[in-house]
Design goal:
- This protein is mostly beta strands.
- Helix content is about 0%, strand content about 50%.
- Strand 9 and strand 10 form a beta hairpin.
- Strands 2, 4, 5, 6, 9, 10 and 11 form a 7-stranded mixed beta sheet that branches.
- The termini are far apart.
Length: about 120
Amino acid sequence: QVQLVESGGGLVQPGGSLRLSCGASGFVFSQTVMRWYRQGPGKEREFVAGIVGAGAIFVTGRTNYTDSVKGRFTISRDDATNTLLLQMNALKPEDTAVYYCNVRLLDGDYWGRGTQVTVSS
């Protein structure tokens, strides 16, 4: 049974930092591409960042980001603990959203319940 559990959200002032975590189980985490998405108030869910797993021989650990977070967010993974991370720096009010962990397997997409990030003074 695939499970994804996000944590680390909260209220932070503009310019502040948060670190999100996603604990994963039920699949071979180390070989799987993992992604963060977010959904802001009144907006559609959008891709934030992704990181390749060890199963991709020549691109292991490669990351990609949506343009609006480049240079501010860093995605990483700890394959020893099956944990996906998202370090968020220089946060802006427009980063306010529920952040979701995602994995795409052969039988479809799996999502966590999300963690709320609110950036406000």
